Amino acid sequence: MVTKKIYIKNMVCDRCKRVVAEELQKLGYTVLQVGLGEAELSVESGEIDMEQLREVLENNGFELLDDRKTQLIEKVKLAIIELVHQAGEQELHTNTSAYIADKVGLDYNYISSLFSSFEGITIEKYLILQRTERVKELLVYDELSLKEIAYKLGYSSVAHLSNQFKKVTGLTPSHFKQIKSDKRKTLDKVQD
Fold first, then answer.
1. pTM for the whole thing?
2. Closest CA to 136 of 108, 103, 174
């Protein structure tokens, strides 16, 4: 038995991990572990039918990542998504560049330069877009005040949240909450 790790784009939640695990098992692979953006398999011959795997993943909205730099970019995106959508308030009040560098295991300046060249936007802009989507989600749920949302997502003030939100959406958070017609985007489409 040989252990192989594959990297997968567009995995953003526990449901994604479950779908990938189920699909890999249907293909006859022994799944050792599935995390956001990756899966570890035990393969008898050491061979994986990459075309079959690519097709199954694409049919479920995922993409197989072959290139090391592409895999790195996906790790950065997953770290940001985890920070904004799953992390506690403690992590959101830490230094973002240090958090990402720690999660990815590389120098932030290198990561930032690579991300910008591949994605056409900075890590900071991607983070702002993710935070904006999270604000939209929390506004739609209507369980927290704007002040609570600002704190939860690591904004320095309600004014900072409102200004950033308006720059991205063209609406104030209160106007967005009132009309709720600006459809939220899926996490993998945030930069589009």
1. 0.73
2. 174
